[in-house]
Specification:
heterodimer, A: alpha+beta, 3-stranded antiparallel beta sheet, 8 strands, about 15% strand, B: alpha/beta, Beta Polymerase, domain 2, 5-stranded mixed beta sheet, two-stranded parallel sheet, 3 helices
Amino acid sequence: MGLVHAEEMTLNIGPQHPSTHGVLRLKVKTDGEIISEITPVIGYLHRCFEKHCENLSYEQVIPFTDRCDYIAAMNNSFGYVLAVEKLMDIQVPERVEYIRVIMAEYNRIASHLLALGTFGLDVGAYTPFLYMFRDRERILDLFEITCGARLLYNYMWVGGVSHDLPLGFMEASYRFLDEFEKNINEYHNILSYNKIFIERSADVGIMPKDVAIDYGVTGPNLRGSGVKWDLRKDEPYSIYNRFKFDVPVGTGIMGSVGDCWDRYWVRAEEMQESIKIIRQALDKIPREGNVHEALPKKVRPPKGSIYFRTESPRGDLGYYIISDGTPTPLRVKMRSPAFTALSALSEIATGWMLSDVLVILGSLDIVLGEIDR
Amino acid sequence: MIINQKVSDILEVKFPGVVILPDEPHNDFIQIHPEKWKEIAKFIKTDSELKFDSCQCITGVDLGIEDGLEVRYNFHSMQLKHKIEIRIAVERKNPSIPSIEQVWRGANWLEREVYDMYGIRFKGHRDLRRMLLPDDWKGWPLRKDYKTPNIYNGMKIPKVRKGWD
């Protein structure tokens, strides 16, 4: 490899391509089949999120945060409302805290199901994708009976949530979790331990620990490289310190630490942990309580700024909010985890074959809505 | 937030006069002069007591037309599990600041985004291009003195409404 140098060719992937997970363009320089450089071109989905925020009140920003990461909208607005609540020093009722954690973890499972399913699709496995969408659909149904929306919820509010859990939610939840736990084993059989899948993903696109940290990569991608770092555990926000769960890390079972299979595996294991958290939350949630109790009359935080991070399915999601004491924020900056993950793509994909690029890209689980904002 | 005091003290010994002492005491951030920023960045990344190995977030801020621009950095240490915010003020006219792109590789795109939105030039950045906006976009949209153009490449730009009454 690399002894004979042919003429370099520049190849264009995207902006419209089924495997780029959105509107992403990759300028790929190849030496034969070997990648020598990748330049991602982003911004096709730029909707001026940060500029809009400066003209809207704090509550009106919440639907925009939903639309940034449309795969995990609950987690995105969760981070935002927590940051605003911290600025305003609001204490939300117990029941709200539990509902939020349940919703965030459900959305994490839904997001991971989509990530794993499309990753399989990139590699050529079509069936697991359909199976995973079947289960994701049931989570969306749970969201639908709760707040009426299936994808963009506007569910988390500053000081509360928009609707209380509906009648029958608990029973439906328990039923779903029982069945889903069995289904995960099915996924392992048809995808995780599939010989072809392992051949395509193990030992491919290895992201060493130091590279991941240097690029600011977080979330399952970082944990796939063997770093045990999860904000829910290491810097617990909301009520995550009350739950017992593990932080799965990549150990290189099929190849070496930090390869595509490890990143896949971390997500699969995280779904198990999310089930554990939801079960505990469903058992412990206070039966009574008004979810609108702590809603402030006016959302007008005092002067100041805050950088608040939460663990979204893609990694550390940070909101930098500056308030000047008026009802509109002076600045809202979103630190997107997929943005930093994509910035590392060129580094980890260099030297691999052209067909591996889409596998590596799929294993990073990027959402272009969040990258371009 | 004892770490702020610690970083401030260590920097004061190593680079005298670089930390701008605040008017009123607080524990949220440290403000420094921009001149030796790259050396300081290298130092806080490698120093055994600090080890800020991860550059989490770089935020450009425009505090208002009378005030200047500011760049705010959020660093985190994966090894020692602490974090810090560093602020550097830059002037509005011809703003520039040393780049830390060669210190943390993740800072590359984050700095490009700040340049894209605020026009702050990062000295020493090897690939300073627009990140999210098209290459032929004019002006720096997140500055408070930015005027939205009426027309872009022959296309009409809709007006931004100022909130809902």
